[in-house]
């Protein structure tokens, strides 16, 4: 499981568990908070109506006339209110008035309850004792949706409690608002979850992407490929990136020194052995012709070492680069023609015809000298292996966003065992006609130049005979 997925799953689990607890608590608290609001408004209503009864009371006894008239008028008025989508068309309150003994004097819902003893009800009982009286009672004992909330206020006459005015309201009237609030909370949680998921993906990308870049960078370094340290956000990640780059430079330096010493030792071991052998033989008495033969061997060996060192220096410079450096637009057609013109005497001396098929105007971004070196090495390779009187074809064309350079010769081609090693350092094949092997560094140099320019070079056989060297380079996107 990837780090990105783990991070997302952990954060989602935290959000899910925490969100579930909070939402469950919120849903559980909605209805009680609504009921508390209803109770608070019932307190005001009961106190107001109790004061109305007190004002209209005569001769020290509680009268229901003013209350009954007020309620009847309110019922007759009707309502037409749109409360957040809920249509209210009738009065949703209940009223009853009891005397100082708890006997019902007036009931807005059940006129047959007049005279009933309500002194046992909590709202009446507590109010008559001078305390806050309220109760919640089900109209249907088996149906919790029929709960009615009652709140009472005392009716005082001459400073004494002469009765109780109770206002009741069915809690079913708030069920619509509770259901709406619950739906909004649930939908808010769902939408918030999707928003959070999007934010988690962004955060995971912000955290994990730099680590993935560092991982890819480390793997390129491990594989020996050119690697540029990634640009990372934040002080910690950028510091980690610099540490990786410093580690790479330290390892590359050690490995490169060891690799270069090994390859140089391998390259000069054979000519040094030949030079030593010839020098030891020269100590012995011999004829002048034999002496000249051994001297010639010494000179050839030293020249071979010189060529190897001369080739190793630019190759070492290219291999140590992580990027191309200063670059400019380069016209490939002109570079190819210059390389051909430089080797024109060699082509003419061997009677080799050069056929050019070059599309003009193809421009790449790079180092003109290095590109000339790469194409020149490929041409020299075709010249060395092409038989006298043969021909070499040069093609330059565009394929998508790349420029493709093909160099075709009519030589013997490559043996199967050499196809995968032809770009290895110090690997070379004998030239046709018994010619000396090359240093084995030319094609390695071409490969490094191609990599620095973001391209690739390949070498394969062609039918019926010969080889095809192909150099593919990305075109300048601005041209």
Describe this structure in words.
The chain is an alpha+beta fold and 479 residues long. The chain has ten helices and 14 strands. A five-stranded antiparallel beta sheet has the order 4-3-7-6-5. A five-stranded mixed beta sheet has the order 9-11-12-14-13, covered by helices on one side. A hairpin with a 2-residue loop joins β1 and β2. It is rod-shaped and about 160 Å long. The model has no long low-confidence stretch (mean pLDDT 76).
Question: What is the topology?
Answer:
Elements: H1 3-56, H2 65-77, E1 81-83, E2 86-88, E3 94-99, E4 104-107, H3 122-128, E5 133-138, E6 147-157, E7 160-170, H4 175-222, H5 235-282, H6 288-320, E8 328-331, H7 332-342, H8 344-349, E9 353-358, E10 363-366, H9 368-385, E11 391-399, E12 402-408, H10 442-452, E13 456-461, E14 467-474
Parallel strand pairs: 9-11
Antiparallel strand pairs: 1-2, 3-4, 3-7, 5-6, 6-7, 8-10, 11-12, 12-14, 13-14
């Amino acid at each position: 499981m990837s780090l990105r997925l783990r991070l997302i799953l952990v954060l989602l689990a935290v959000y899910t568990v925490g969100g579930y607890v909070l939402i469950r608590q919120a849903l559980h608290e909605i209805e009680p908070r609504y009921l508390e609001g209803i109770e608070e408004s019932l307190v005001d209503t009961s106190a107001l109506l109790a004061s109305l009864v007190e004002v209209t009371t005569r001769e020290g006894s509680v009268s229901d006339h003013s209350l009954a008239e007020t309620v009847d008028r309110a019922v007759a008025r009707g309502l037409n209110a749109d409360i957040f989508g809920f249509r209210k068309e009738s009065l949703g309150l209940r009223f009853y008035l009891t005397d100082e003994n708890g006997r019902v004097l007036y009931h807005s819902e059940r006129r047959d309850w007049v005279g009933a003893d309500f002194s046992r009800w909590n709202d009446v009982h507590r109010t008559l004792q001078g305390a806050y009286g309220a109760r919640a009672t089900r109209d249907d004992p088996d149906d919790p949706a029929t709960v009615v909330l009652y709140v009472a206020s005392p009716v005082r006459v001459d400073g004494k409690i002469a009765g109780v005015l109770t206002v009741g309201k069915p809690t079913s009237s708030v069920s619509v608002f509770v259901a709406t609030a619950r739906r909004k909370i649930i939908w808010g949680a769902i939408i918030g979850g999707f928003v959070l998921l999007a934010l988690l993906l962004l955060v995971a990308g912000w955290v994990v992407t730099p680590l993935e870049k560092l991982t890819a960078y480390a793997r390129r370094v491990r594989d020996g490929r050119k690697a540029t340290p990634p640009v990372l956000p934040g002080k910690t990640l950028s510091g980690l990136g610099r540490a990786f780059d410093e580690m790479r430079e330290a390892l590359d330096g050690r490995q490169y020194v060891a690799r270069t010493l090994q390859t140089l030792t391998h390259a000069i071991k054979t000519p040094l052995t030949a030079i030593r052998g010839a020098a030891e033989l020269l100590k012995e008495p011999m004829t002048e012709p034999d002496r000249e033969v051994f001297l010639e061997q010494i000179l050839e060996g030293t020249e071979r070492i010189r060529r190897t060192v001369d080739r190793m220096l630019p190759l070492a410079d290219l291999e140590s680069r992580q990027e191309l450096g200063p670059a400019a637009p380069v016209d490939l057609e002109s570079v190819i023609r210059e390389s051909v013109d430089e080797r024109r005497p060699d082509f003419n001396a061997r009677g080799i015809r050069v056929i050019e098929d070059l599309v003009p105007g193809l421009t790449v971004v790079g180092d003109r000298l290095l590109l000339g070196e790469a194409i020149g090495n490929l041409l020299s390779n075709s010249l060395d292996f092409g038989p006298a009187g043969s021909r070499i074809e040069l093609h330059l064309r565009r394929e998508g966003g790349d420029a493709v350079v093909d160099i075709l010769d009519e030589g013997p081609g490559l043996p199967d065992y050499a196809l995968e090693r032809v770009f290895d350092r110090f690997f070379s094949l004998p030239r046709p006609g018994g010619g000396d092997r090359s240093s084995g560094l030319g094609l390695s140099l071409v490969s490094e130049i191609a990599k620095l320019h973001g391209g690739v070079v390949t070498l394969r056989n062609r039918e019926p005979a010969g080889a095809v060297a192909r150099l593919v380079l990305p075109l300048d996107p601005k041209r």
